[in-house]
Write a structure and sequence with these properties.
Elements lengths: L8 H5 L4 E3 L8 E12 L6 E14 L13 H8 L17 H11 L15 H6 L8 H8 L2 E2 L4 E4 L2 E3 L3 H8 L9 E2 L18 H11 L7 H10 L10 H20 L11 H9 L7 H17 L13 H11 L4 E4 L19 H4 L2 E3 L4 H8 L19 H10 L3 E8 L4 E8 L22 E3 L5 H9 L19 E2 H15 L2 H4 L10 H7 L20 E3 L5 H30 L38 H8 L33 E3 L17 E4 L2 E4 L4 E3 L15 E2 L26 E2 L16 H12 L2 E4 L6 E4 L4 H20 L10 H13 L5 H148 L7
Parallel strand pairs: 7-10
Antiparallel strand pairs: 1-14, 2-3, 2-13, 4-5, 5-6, 8-9, 10-11, 11-12, 15-18, 16-17, 19-20, 21-22
Helix pairs in contact: 5-14, 6-11, 6-12, 8-9, 9-10, 23-24, 24-25
Amino acid sequence: MGRPQSSSLTELAKQQFYEPNTDRSANPIIREQWLAAGELDRSPRGWKSVGPSFMGLGYHPSAPLPRVDRATTLGMHMVDKGLGWEHHNIEYVPFPRGYKDWGIEVLKHHNFHLMGQEDRADFIYGAIYCSLGDYSASPALLRALLETWNSHTNTFLFPCGERTITLLDLHKMAGLPVDGDFYEEYVPPRWELEPSLLLYPNFLLDLLNTWDELAVGDEVKFSTWCDHFYNKEKSPISFSTVREERMFVAAFIALWLCCFVVVGSGPHIRRGVLVMAAWMALGRQFSLAPPALCSLYYSLRLISMHPIGPAYTNRAWPVHFVIGWMGLYLRKVFGNMGKRAHLPVYKHKYSAERPSMTNTMCRTPDHFSPEGAHDFFHKRTNIAWHPYEFTNLKGIRQLERTFIISIRRGMLPWRRGGSKHDLCIAEPYHPDRVAQQFRFDQVIPFLPLPSLYTMDDVGIAYAYWEHLLRPAQDEEYTIPDSSRSGRFSVAWTEWWVTFIKPFASVWPALRSGNASGRVSYAERKEKYAQHNSHLSTRKICQRDFLVVREVAVECHEQRIAYVTATTEKRKNALMRILRVYLDHKAPQIQMPPLVQPALQPSHNSQQDQAAGSSSTCPLLIDNPSAQERMADNQVNMGCNSGAKRHSSQVTLTQEDETPAAKRKLECADEAVTTDFATDFVPPVNATTSGVEHLATSSAVGYLDLDDFEDDAAAYCIAARDGTCPPSLPFTQPFVDIAGFDGGYVPFPSDIGQAIPSVDGLNDDLVTSFINDFEQPSTVPSSNTGTLVAAATPGMEAIDAIFLDAVDKAVEEALKGLDTMSLRDPARCQQLEDLSNKLPVSISGVLRVKEMLVQLVTLSRHLQLAQGEFERNTKQKELEVSQIMQERENQAAICMHAAQEIKTVNERRLEKEQLVASLAAQLEEATRALNGLKQEEERLGNICTNQADEEKKLNDALSTAKKSLDEAASALQDKLKNLTHDAEGLLINLKNWRSVPN
């Protein structure tokens, strides 16, 4: 059973119909606009307005208002859910044993196609060098930084504003290219890997088969891959074919992509990476920074949103990019540079432009306590706002494109198709939230774009790539000067204080370090044990259609036609790469000794630019030794010969090789630049002594003569012993002189064909040519040892031939020439070049040369006059433009002032109405207050009267009580007396008889 396969994004784009959104709201640009300056402070309000309005550079159009969004960070998630940093260790990517040595081997001896072809621009040489270093950071400082991460906006939230790792940062600090072809990981169908189709490099199939052989459980570990391709090899490493060498480099690039650039899915070689690695080994440039940043954002999302804790996943992620960013933006967080064991010297021709991570690698991090780490990020001066200059970006097309793409708001796609799944991860990219990192002015940003993690609509990644790498617009082509520093708008400061408030409220709780969460770690694990992944795939919904949109059904055919045309352009360019590679990888073919057949074209014509990307396939490389090794394997096969390709005899070693002679090929419909100041001439039929040489006009070329030096006098020479002497650049056919026993003999097969073209005329070459004809050539005879003279044509024929050639050249140079075109420097240079190439040894040509010199002089005078006129005109236009601009500025200022006056008047009227309303309310309140006072006085009098009456009643009650007490006392006494009398009477009654009368 075969491995799973997947279609390329271009094929998916013909089935899933999405396209970039062209609305202005989806494509904000940098534009000048009037802004009110604001500043954050420590007042209760948190901000203040400073100075008058200024003309700023900010994103346009403005974000819609009002805004109710609030910050949500990892720190807030930890405090809210009771999480902590239990069992946290920095999850560095586990580089396998032998990786550094393998990378050093590639950089030293196989660095073809790794360096950029444009001045001060690199491809991946610097990025590979950055992967060879060790990176470490203070755990407390890294944890404090991660707690500020907002996974909805993909930015760090500091008290002074937002910061993030941008595409430009990845280019400047890690050397990753931002522009290029779409990066996608997929496994093409088996039939597409057939080398004769020229769809993929022919060693890609070998890479895929090797992956299948090494796979255990559909996974190939880093260590297994490195052991197979490098650790088992004996030093010095050599290859019998160029194909083996390219496969060796492609295998390393695959490992480098998985463990340093686009990190994910564990320490394994992703099968879909092999396609990208194979192409990169041949020099195809891909946009690597967007998928690399997407993998970093995605890793930070996994860390920030895990329900058990930020350290639970224990998943290797590209933390080296975060450490590199810390070394670039944070001040005084690293100590001295440690020893760079076994690292080579950075040998790029533009070493001054090397990535900044080369300065961060192998540095010892400073120690931070949890409190010190949090306090560090609360001090504005500890964060560098502008760590590098932008002036060095100007004038370099690749670097300018890098800046333009880096300031675009959009989605970062990472299509990851391999042996198990085919999915698309897309993370939002918000440079509008960190405008000051680009030296622009910060205004209120747009609402964040939603992230996407889908297995159903992977084709949307094609539209995301198109939107991100779209051609630059004139109005967004703004690279700020180094003297410029961005400012805050007052609207942004007011919005920011409200936005950051929820996060600011948990700062005290985070300062202690949160080593243990409020909820126990065991309880969290038990509660969420069934959740293997807290981020699941989903289908595309309406909220995803912000920077892209669905294609209407009636436009599907048109979309398919556009994608097909774009694909064909890119395919043609890639086929040229493969043809050149196949030509270069084949061995040298031995040519027949007497007759040189015509050569095959090299297919080295200029390539079409792939649609949707400004990059071209870098066929030209800057490494001379690599060029020489490639030239040594050039195919030389005759169009009409039956020669077959022999097995390779080339062995590439680590040692420097002697530069080989350059092979130059040309065919009728392709122009090839030569090393000589001459053009090829049509071949001729030459017959001498029954031996005929026929060179067709469809393809001609030079012999490969490494062992001879150029000799202008030895032309059209053939030898009896089968060796061929050097030829003039403009003489092609070689004929055999039958019956001649000598060595070499000059014998022009057709003198008319031996004349150089106009572009090839020069005094030395022509004089040497004429002198050779004026003096009879002599050669030694093999029998007698005497010199034998060879017949040569007369000078009259040569003069006539030169005059005809000069006449044609002058006619061609004067075509379309008039007084206006004579002012063109290019035409003047053309006339001057023609004049310099005309020989002075022919009398008829001298007069033409003098007239051309006069014409060139007149042209230069016209150019000077025209230049003076244009300078004066430009100066006046500049002055007028400055005056007009100043007037427009003044008008804008006046208009702005008038608008402010109008606003102030409106506010004054509003306040006056408010004052009048408040005055009426105050009058009514005064009347009510007076009434309440009167009522209070009345009630007070009533209370007083009641108090007096109550006092009287109390006195009466007291008197009555006293009288009652007295009466009760008297009654008690009287009752006591009566009781006593009653008791005495009762006693008397009982004893009445005994009582005497």
